User: What shape does this take?
Amino acid sequence: MTEIATCPHCRTPAEVPDRFAGGIVNCKKCGRAIEVPGLRDPLWWLLRAGVVAAAVGAGVLVAQRHGAATGAITGAALLAGSWLVSRAL
Ligand SMILES: [Zn+2]
Assistant: This one.
């Protein structure tokens, strides 16, 4: 299945393979970025859920050893870091 996305810059319709759904492709005509509607594939979501669980788990571990405040900061920092990385993917 292919998604149809319209370039917001030059209005050219672009056929995008399903695996790019929810991601970004470059327009064939003007070369600029097109955000593709739709959800990412399940593997991507599974990976995200795993990273969030790992960040929360690490926060809880640190909280048990070094106190709740340090644990909360560690968990939040890991979540923020994973969010930044996921934006680039
Ligand atoms: Zn374009």
About this structure: Residues 42-88 form one domain. The helical segments are 42-66, 68-88. The first strand starts at residue 2 and ends at 6. The first helix runs from residue 42 to 66.
